[in-house]
Amino acid sequence: MWYLYVLECGDGSFYTGATGDLSRRLAEHQSGRGARYTKTHPPVALLAAWTYPDRGTALRAEAAFKALPRSVKKAWVEGRWPFLEGPFAFAALGQGDAHHFCPRCGGRLAFRSIDGAEVAVCTVCGRSDYLNAKPCAGVLIVHDGAVLLVHRGIEPYKGYWDIPGGFMGADEAPQACAVREAREETGLDVHVVALLGFYMDHYPFQGEDYSILNIYFIAEAEGVPAAGDDADGLCWFPLDVLPEEIAFEHERQVLADLRTRMEGALHFHGEREAWV
Fold first, then answer.
1. Nearest to 216 by CA among 115, 136, 159, 106
2. Mean pLDDT across the stretch 182-195?
3. For residues 130 and 152, what is the distance between their CA atoms, to the nearest angstrom?
4. DSSP-assigned beta bridge partners for residue 114
5. Which residues contact 84 (CB under 8 A, 6 or more apart)?
6. Per-residue pLDDT tens for 59-111?
């Protein structure tokens, strides 16, 4: 990932650059080691950034942005619009939400603190847009002390092992979502036997960092699984021999909780009773 970035200098002027390591480059500018211009115009602060897939694309974007009149640069910085097909890097500026205009009237949004929460409020029509975690559901398919994991074929975490699951539809119940995702990713029709728990995490997508609420169920299934949808492979893993590359930070805790739950089940004679 490469960045086109814009700094605001101490005298209000702009400095534009391109880098493959935005945090390091910003630190260099702030310490006076980044460029002659920023060294003689301190202090500097990151004002805007856009992401690009490679160095050449980022350098072309840098040249195009430098050629713009200052008034146009200012409008682009404030608008947070994509520049030359590069999305605005909201996460790089510590902004988790990319929506800066009201979906009802198109007015500019201002972030205000309401009851201790940051809320986007339209400066024109007054509409409030509360930021909530996006709900997801997953399913832990177990058999003979092992859990079925899928190999992710897409970003984020492409090439990592993942628990089957995904985002819930607008009117979809969590358990129905878990069953659907299991069928799409493993080809199995699962039977849910218990709720494991709720877990928070973040999901990076198209330059944004979404807060997500993950709901996990324990399930059983018969038949031979076959990878599909976002998965390009799958494998049964004993819970004490899990792979190193697990997608998403919260999933290690999920699998640890599943192992504790299954170990507790050994104290019962009936498997069905153990999951209750």
1. 136
2. 93
3. 31
4. 117
5. 50, 57, 60, 61, 64
6. 999 999 999 999 999 988 888 888 998 988 877 776 554 566 777 777 777 77
Mean pLDDT over the full length of the chain: 86
DSSP 269: S
Contact 9, 65 (CB under 8 A): no
Tokens of 89: 């890097």
Counted residue by residue, the chain has a size of: 276
Sequence-distant (6+) residues with CB within 8 A of 28 are: 34
Q: Which of 152, 120, 165 is nearest to 243 (CA)?
A: 152
Please report, as a single letter, which amino acid is at residue 116. Answer: G
Residue appearing with tokens 């897409």: 154
Give residue-wise pLDDT tens across range 105-156: 777 777 777 777 778 888 888 888 777 889 999 999 999 889 999 999 888 8
Which residue stretches of the chain are H helix? 22-30, 36-40, 55-66, 70-79, 174-186, 250-265, 271-274
